[in-house]
Amino acid sequence: MSKQINVALIGNPNTGKTSVFNALTGLNQKVGNYPGITVEKKEGVCKLSRGIKAHIIDLPGTYSLNASSLDENVVIELLLNKNDKDFPDIAVVVSDVENLKRNLLLFTQIKDLEIPAILVINMSDRMHYKGISLDLDYLEEHLQTKIALISTRKNEGIDNLKNLISNYKDISVTPCIDPSEIDAEYFNNLQKAFPNQLIYKLWLVITQDVNFGKTNRKEIDAIASFKTKSKADLKRLQQKETIKRYQFINNVLKKGQTIDASQAKDLRSKLDRVLTHKIWGYLIFFVILLLMFQAVYDWATYPTDFIDESFAALADWVKNTLPPGVFTNLLAEGIIAGIGGIMVFIPPIAFLFLFISLLEESGYMSRVVFLMDNVMKRFGLSGKSVVPLISGNACAIPAIMATRNIESWKERLITILVTPFTTCSARLPVYVIIIALVIPEGDFIGFSYKSLTLMSLYIIGFLTAIISAYILNKVLKIKSKSFFVIEMPAYKIPLVKNVAITVVEKTKTFVFEAGKIILAISIVLWVLASYGPGEQFDNAEHIVKTEYKLLTDDALEDKIAAHKLENSYIGIIGKTIEPLIKPLGYDWKIGIGLVTSFAAREVFVGTLATIYSVGSANNAEDEDTIKNRMANETYKDGSKVFTFASGISLLLFYAFAMQCMSTLAIVKRETNSWKWPMLQLTVMSLFAYIVALIAFQFLK
Questions:
Q1: Whether 597 contacts 611, CB under 8 Å
Q2: Fewer Cβ atoms within 10 A, N terminus or C terminus of the chain?
Q3: What span, in angstroms and rounded, lies between the C-alpha atoms of 207 and 85?
Q4: Residue 87 class from Cβ within 10 Å (0-12 exposed, 13-18 middle, 19+ buried)?
Q5: Beta strands in 90-153 (DSSP E)
Q6: Cβ 608 vs Cβ 626: under 8 Å
Q7: How many domains does the chain have?
Q8: What b-and-e string marks burial along 472-506, b requiring 16 or more CB atoms within 10 Å of the CB?
Q9: How do residues 435-484 score in pLDDT, each as one tens digit?
Q10: Is residue 10 included in any domain, yes or no?
Q11: pLDDT computed for residue 238 by the predictor
Q12: How many other CB atoms are found less than 10 A from the CB of residue 86?
């Protein structure tokens, strides 16, 4: 059996930690949450030499072990709890060659916990441009570690890093400094009280507000109770500790690092002047968004149509090949139609993740956060709120988790409450299919009406979020101070490997998570749509043949299928809620889609695909695709169900409604109360209904 070791990947934000993680694990990674909290964690497996496997955990980015946010606490809690199953055998501390001095603060703290630590100096390919040279032997000797000089961009030094991880037992665990020197008497008393504990571990337990779970609870409480000093005194000692560490780091770097400023080739300041300009910055960001949505819509058209037609052909083949019966109908009309209803939207979602990944990898997203800080302040938020709001374009759940970086509780709460207004990828399937149905062909200054409509929905969502934030800031009487600090990373050409892994992993997660829900709901819907109570369902064929005597066989089959669907269990549910949604321009079938999509918004299209499959016996080629079935849907008087008025109403309803049980659960968990998610559900749903009602009544 191969041996497995735990490796903790630790580092400051923007040091290329994700690139190192991807280089080591490739696609052998998964995303989950840390036990008991909703901070995302990434885990992966890396094969080393001599049959050793490394279980690599990518910890949240932190500047030091003096935590200021909830996600930074995760790092401390793991490093101080040896009984945790993920406690690292070795810590790989990732640093940026351009910010080595600052990055080494975290490295020296981890060393003082006597955990074997490798120092990874990333982005070595930039040393020449910045006039940086390093004496690695000197640095290794005085930092008492092994150093891996790597470039993930050029894939250099990764094999050496793997070799160092394999030989982690050879790495010194000698601390870099003696923290007790900042107050000898206090630390001596502390050591006497707990002689079997590391002095620096004792110090961190006392100064940090962290949770260690049930493990060693009594011991931890006993240490934490050793607070003979006031909070202000402890804070001053922390500052002394930081100064002492930087004195040590400065002394090491005096000889270990040389920077020739005359060689530095810096384009960054010139780009920043343009991209963060108070006029040009916003204009450039708007143009980037416009191009992004044009590309998402145009590029995705061909693969989307191909997938749609393929699933329609597969369902048709199943019906014609397998023996007639319940199983064949379930497979063709329930499972295939339901899964096809989500698979058609893989291309636009993948393209959206592609562009978001490119913006993040290039370093531009940090400029957007900085640029938007002035705007956010006026609405009771900070620049840090932009990260969750932009992340919400992928999914509201990790976006709400990302609010843990916001120190102010009031700003964090407001951000949590308004983030679901931003257009998540689950809304994209609904937007794409409805826009395709109701928005006419044509373009304006080179941009199609369809892509402009799609972008407008994203802008409407964002504007609604910040206007809601302004109102909440005035209404919520919560006193809270905040400060805004953001690091501007260097501009980089995005790594193809990183972007590809991000797109594949996030799209895969979306498909599999949504797929579970859609498959289950599709089967339930098919059962509810295929069976019904009473004579109207059981004698559908006789009733229809009596009423329509002159129809062709195909038309008669369609009438029978439609009559059965209307009198099925799902039809009865739809008819019951129809009076409530009819003023919005929706029929009972759309109503069923609205109800099921509260499980997940993207279920809407799969629901309609299943319902229309069950409700039609016509297998003509032009009827097979989801888009064509929806386009051809009519009321009894022959008028179209999906018109410009009903389409816009539906788009606006989905833009504002809170239709995601998972998001509600996360909001409850993050706020530790059902009060806020219930408020979200009520206000957003009511607002969506009113806006959709006004839109339909005005446009019809």
A1: no
A2: N
A3: 24
A4: middle
A5: 90-96, 117-122, 132-134, 146-149
A6: yes
A7: 2
A8: bbeeeeeeeebebebeebbebebbeebbebbbebb
A9: 888 888 888 877 788 888 888 998 899 899 989 988 988 888 776 655 55
A10: yes
A11: 85
A12: 16
Taking the C-alpha atoms of residue 165 and residue 159, their distance in angstroms, rounded to an integer, is: 10
Please give the structure tokens belonging to residue 580.
């409530």
Query: What proportion of the chain, given as a percentage, has pLDDT over 70?
Result: 82
> What secondary structure, in 3-state letters, does 637-672 show?
CCCECCCHHHHHHHHHHHHHCCCCHHHHHHHHHHHC
Compute the C-alpha angle 401/405/409, nearest 5°.
90
Q: In Å, how far are 138, 295, 305 from 107, measured between CA atoms? A: 16, 43, 52
SS3 9: strand
**Which pLDDT score is estimated for 514?**
60
DSSP-assigned beta bridge partners for residue 90: 7
Q: State the DSSP code for 66.
A: S
* pLDDT at residue number 566: 77
For 392-403, give one letter per residue: b (16+ CB within 10 A) or e. Answer: bbbbbbbbbbbb
Within a domain: residue 152? yes
* Final residue of a structural domain among 246, 263, 280: 263
> What percent of the chain lies above the pLDDT cut of 90?
12
Structure letter (DSSP) for residue 447: E
Element (H, E) at 683: helix 675-699
Q: Where are the alpha helices (DSSP H) in 378-495?
A: 386-391, 396-401, 409-418, 428-438, 449-475
- Within 13 Å of residue 267, how many CA atoms lie on the same side as its CB? 4
Q: How many helices (H) and strands (E) does the chain have?
A: 32, 11
Closest to 237 measured CA to CA, from 210, 193, 203: 203
Does residue 34 lie in a domain region? yes
Beta bridge partners of 308: none
User: Is residue 334, in this structure, part of any structural domain at all?
Assistant: no
Do the Cβ atoms of 31 and 42 come closer than 8 Å?
A: yes
Q: Give me the domain span that covers residue 87.
A: 1-263
Q: Write the pLDDT tens digit of every residue in 92-113.
A: 999 988 888 889 999 999 999 8
Q: Residue 94: name the closest of 9, 24, 8, 26 by CA.
A: 9
Strand positions, DSSP E, 294-381:
none
Global model pTM greater than 0.85: no
The residue out of 227, 245, 263 marking a domain boundary is 263
Query: What's the start-to-end Cα distance of the chain, in Å?
Result: 70
**Number of Cβ within a 10 Å radius of residue 525:** 29
Query: CA 111, 116, 118 angle in degrees (round to 5)?
Result: 85
